[in-house]
Automatic annotation (TrEMBL):
Xref: InterPro entries: Gfo/Idh/MocA-like_OxRdtase_N, GFO_IDH_MocA-like_dom, NAD(P)-bd_dom_sf
GO molecular function term, any single one: nucleotide binding
Domain Gfo/Idh/MocA-like oxidoreductase N-terminal intervals: 2-119
Name of the protein in its database record: Oxidoreductase domain protein
Lineage: Bacteria, Bacillati, Bacillota, Clostridia, Eubacteriales
GFO/IDH/MocA-like oxidoreductase domain segment(s): 138-247
Gene3D superfamilies: Dihydrodipicolinate Reductase, domain 2 (3.30.360.10), NAD(P)-binding Rossmann-like Domain (3.40.50.720)
One Pfam family in the UniProt entry: GFO_IDH_MocA_C3
Annotated source species: Ethanoligenens harbinense (strain DSM 18485 / JCM 12961 / CGMCC 1.5033 / YUAN-3)
């Protein structure tokens, strides 16, 4: 049994704990919050016996085997590093770190202490993504991938009023690319690997954070377009174009409806399920890695490629975070 604690008390942690109830491999023992009262309230609400308002106490606790981190991006590296150094396995919400050098350091720490580090990238562990992967061959030679995730943020309304919340604050390593553009980048590298080169542009808001952006990626035989936004919506699906047809993806961050439109006009419905926000699949993958002792699992390689692309995109877009100081740019 993997006994785990959580860092973060937001809605994503709530989703994760709902999934944990259906996973026989894990047991929820404790909650962390900077507020002792909030930590205890959250732990009580979810049946955990332990509550922490001190990270060192959590990291050193002998009954905790693993930690799920769902704090703002800028906290991921220091919190994960502390847990890993105390021999705790870590599942960290996307984006796993603020930049690639931070990730390479965490991987080195995980290897040194023989613990599992994994990014919580829910979409690529879903049944829908597996169906997508298993049917790519029907498209023939793939020439283009267009992934888009454009979702108007309610926090943008506050931004326009002068209220800067975490989602639009560069001090928290956030913004459109890091918050939702990553949902386009990660599936791209998982399906097609690292591109030869990228070209990135963004709409930069007054405080230096990106509200929307585009990444063009070059591969030996195909092109990719990644479109993301927190200040507009999109009504168009993502798609992968091959010489034999195109695969339409209803939502790249949550691929629950997949259809192939062949070159002759015929269609094949691959999947049509209700939209779900289930984190059980990624939890099962993390637990399996822990149980098998698989420290250098394939998901880490995808996260490494993801962060290399994000760093290069931000460099071209002129987006800088405090945690970049002395590391990149």
């Amino acid at each position: 049994m993997i006994r785990f604690a959580t860092i973060g008390t937001n809605f994503i942690t709530e989703w994760f704990l709902e999934a944990a109830k259906r996973c026989d491999a894990v047991e929820y023992l404790g909650a962390y919050s900077r507020s002792a009262e909030k930590a205890r309230r959250f732990a009580n609400a979810h049946g955990a016996p332990l509550a922490f308002d001190d990270l060192e106490e959590l990291a050193a606790h002998p009954d905790i085997d693993a930690v799920y981190i769902a704090s703002p991006n800028s906290f991921h590296y220091p919190q994960a590093a502390r847990m890993l150094r105390h021999g705790k396995h870590v599942l960290c919400e996307k984006t796993i770190t603020a930049n690639y050098p931070e990730l390479t350091e965490l991987i080195a720490v995980a290897k040194e202490h023989h613990v599992v580090l994994m990014e919580a990238m829910r979409s690529v562990h879903t049944r829908g993504f597996a169906v997508l992967q298993n049917n790519l061959h029907k498209l023939g030679t793939i020439r283009r991938a267009t992934f888009q995730y454009c979702q108007y943020s309610s926090r943008y309304d506050n931004y326009k009023k002068g209220i800067i919340e975490n989602a639009f604050d560069p001090h928290y390593a956030n913004g459109a690319l890091m918050d939702i553009g990553v949902y386009c980048v990660h599936p791209l590298v998982k399906l097609f690997g690292m591109p030869l080169s990228i070209h990135a542009d963004a709409l930069i808001l007054q405080n230096g954070i990106d509200g929307a952006g585009t990444i063009l990626a070059k591969y030996p035989e195909m092109q990719a377009e990644l479109l993301y936004s927190k200040i507009t919506n999109s009504a168009l699906p993502s798609q992968i174009q091959g010489e034999n047809g195109s695969l339409l993806i209803e939502e790249i961050p949550n691929p629950h409806k997949l259809t192939i439109v062949y070159r002759d006009g015929t269609t094949e419905a691959l999947l049509n399920e209700p939209e779900a926000r289930d984190l059980l699949s990624e939890l099962n993958v993390w637990a399996a890695c822990i149980q098998s002792g698989k420290i250098l699992h394939p998901n880490l390689a995808c996260s490494e490629m993801e962060l290399r692309i994000l760093d290069e995109a931000r460099k071209q877009q002129g987006i800088h975070f405090p945690s970049d100081e002395g590391r990149i740019f």
